[in-house]
Amino acid sequence: MSESQNIEYKTKWRDEYLKWICGFANANGGTIFIGKDDNGNVVGADDAKKLLEEIPNKTRDVLGILVDVNLHETKEGGYLEIIVDPYPNAVNYKGQYHYRSESTKQELKGAALDKFLLQKKGKLWDGVPIPNVSVGDLKQETFEFFKKRGIRSQRLSEDSLSDTNEQLIENLQLKENKYLKRAALLLFHPNPEKYVTGAYIKIGYFESDSDLRFQDEVHGNLFEQIEKTMDLLFSKYFKAFISYDRIHRIETFEFPREAVREALLNAVAHKDYSGGVPIQISVYKDKFMIWNEGQLPENWTIETLLDKHSSKPYNPDIATTLFRSGYIESWGRGISKMTEQCLKMDLPEPSFYYKSSGFWVEFRKDIYNQQYLEELGLNTRQVKAVLFVKENEKITNSEYQKLNDCSRNTASNDLTELVEQNILKSSGQKGAGAFYTLN
Q1: Range name among 53-57, 132-136, 251-255, 260-264 with the lowest pLDDT average
Q2: Which of 64, 77, 116, 265 has minimal CB crowding within 10 Å?
Q3: Residue 2 domain-assigned (yes or no)
Q4: Does residue 299 lie within any of the structural domains?
């Protein structure tokens, strides 16, 4: 068995391995084997019987916790099994806080340490109280906006219109004793960046990854950021196809508004605001992407998100208020709603990526339409061929010739250009069995 989240192998004992015990105690617990190599093979531990007594004593004296240590005798030699339970309180090694993540040990510092210590106290970042800010410092217009949205979505009663701002904050549990929580400042303060660095949204239009053409920054509280960002995206960054129903003008945008809003709300509700980095939206000719700093719930993967799952907001106080306003649901259906909306418009399903520092959602256009293909500079034959492949899944050289009434050489040249532009891809075969599909 190889090393994992809960298993560590060491060939011999060193006192610095108390850091590994500290890491296991601060995470989900685990077992350290002394006298095994990296593959789990027994190589024998020096002074195993002596260590059987020393390790528990050192763990108690340095870390202040208790561990079980067992000695196992084999023909290859003796090895020790150190069993570490997870501890509800934060455990430190000489003032350092270590944490087991997957198969590595990390020393927690800065924002990561703050977050860890809060979690051990049963608090989350958005629930921390902030001194020297009162309800009177919050924005009246945002309270009115929140009430109207909440009543319209039937998440608030009509009686809420007569509630004072103080009562509203109390009802939303955005206050702890006499102090406002961080969530209250992000949601209702006119300038939350005064208290939370990076609490804004950046939007950029890119011709390529290295070619930024224009950009905007959206500031204000979270309600203002959501509304301003949606307006900017659909007035400046996304194109609309115009049609008419008699005298009525109809605008059909490249991406479904509800799916975009859902992705934006997810980024706002689940962002790790302690990182100091704004939400970033990158718009390209054929796609757009939203990134927010943050982490998935422990033991979750992208596959967990794509399956039906419970709602586990990273910032529960922020998420609850957005729910009461009618912006979001509380059943973990955001991703399925985005997918449904895209499929209704015959767009590809959105893609989701999670890396160590943040989360990406990517929406792609249906580039296989006549208007877009012509904008790419394809000739009439090539446009017909791509639309043929979209309908029939593949095309051969002979089918291309028949479709366009052209020679074999013309078909070969056209198909080669389509491959070079990454629109089609070749099957790699030669001769009569060769064909091309959408890339």
Answers
A1: 251-255
A2: 64
A3: no
A4: yes
CA 421 to CA 373: how far, in whole Å?
11
* Average pLDDT value for residue range 257-279: 93
- In this structure, the chain runs to a length of 439
Q: How far apart are CA 188 and CA 165, in angstroms?
A: 10
Q: How far apart are CA 266 and CA 190, in angstroms?
A: 22
Bridge-based pairing state of the strands 201-208 and 279-283: parallel
Looking at the structure of the chain, the number of domains it has is: 4
23/163 same-domain check: no
Bridge partners (DSSP) of residue 358 are 293, 355
Whether 275 is in a domain gets the answer yes
Domain assignment present for 163:
yes
In angstroms, the CA 158 to CA 156 distance is: 7
pLDDT at position 56 is 92
The pLDDT of 250-270, averaged and rounded, is 90
Task: Read off the pLDDT of residues 345-370 as tens digits, 9 standing for 90 and up.
Answer: 888 889 999 876 799 999 988 777 78
Number of C-beta neighbours around residue 393 at 10 A: 10
> What is the C-alpha to C-alpha distance for residues 51 and 54, in angstroms, rounded to an integer?
5
Q: Are residues 110 and 138 in the same domain?
A: no
Please report, for residues 124, 191, 285, the alpha-carbon distance to residue 420 in angstroms, rounded to integers and kept in the order given.
50, 49, 18
Distance CA 48, CA 393 (A): 66
Count how many Cα atoms sit within 13 Å of the Cα of residue 144 in the half-sphere of its side chain.
Answer: 3
